[in-house]
Amino acid sequence: MAQDQGLDLVEISPSADPPVCKIIDYSKFKYEQKKKQKEIKAKSQKTVVKEIRFGPNTDDHDFNFKLKHAQGFLKDGAKVKAYVHFVGRSIVFKERGEMLLLRFAQALEEEAKVEEMPKLMGKRMFLMLAPKPAKKS
Prior knowledge:
Layout: H1 2-5, E1 8-13, E2 20-24, H2 26-43, E3 49-54, H3 60-75, E4 79-85, H4 94-107, E5 112-121, E6 124-131
Parallel strand pairs: 3-4
Antiparallel strand pairs: 1-2, 4-6, 5-6
């Protein structure tokens, strides 16, 4: 039947009993599948991660400046990865870095939720924040 119509016989479900086949134009079928995959990929939301770097001795003015940037990033729907970078002997101030990141998370309590609590990896202490979903009124 497929040859008479100039089409292809395609096995759709080989595991079924009896196997399911369809008479279709296979190249057109492949094109449609590719098109659907491309459409799904285009609709998928990409997560953007913005980084904010602190030093263990970051002052209040710098802290507030970076806080405003983080609020902007969160409003745009991006995740924020804040980290304290310890250079040289400043690694002895681990507590200072952790307190700074916790203060940062507390200041952004309204806009973000903490995904990862501060943890030290090498010479950096990380904190991950994700934007809170918008409330529906």
